[in-house]
Design brief:
single chain, mainly alpha, 6 helices
Length: about 110
């Protein structure tokens, strides 16, 4: 894998770290917090989209379309997004997404 892959994964993890901080400071019922969480979730997914196809396939496999779909909903249909979708994503999917990114980063480090 490349330096570009490493930077993409690190950027995605950075956005998830900020997202986690936001979630820890309040409720997603707060519209400002909800906006911040959506922004960081979408930015994280967008960042990892800059990584190579090989890394994305290895890290996320068949979950890739659902991950990108979440980003598309945030980016292109934000005013219609179901807040429960974001809550469910934060509660049920972000930990696995972050875990896959951390594993990808560790794999990249071991290649060098």
């Amino acid at each position: 894998m490349s330096e570009k892959d490493r930077r993409a994964v690190e950027s995605a993890l950075h956005h998830l770290g900020v997202l986690s901080s936001h979630v820890g400071h309040g409720s997603l019922d707060d519209p400002i917090l909800f906006d911040e969480v959506c922004l960081r979730l979408g930015a994280s997914i967008e960042a990892v989209s800059k990584a190579s196809e090989a890394l994305r396939q290895r890290a996320f496999g068949p979950a890739r379309p659902a991950i990108w779909s979440t980003r598309n909903r945030i980016a292109h249909a934000y005013e219609y997004i179901d807040p429960q979708l974001i809550r469910d994503t934060i509660e049920n999917d972000v930990a696995d997404f972050e875990g896959a990114l951390r594993k990808a980063l560790a794999d990249l480090a071991s290649e060098h």
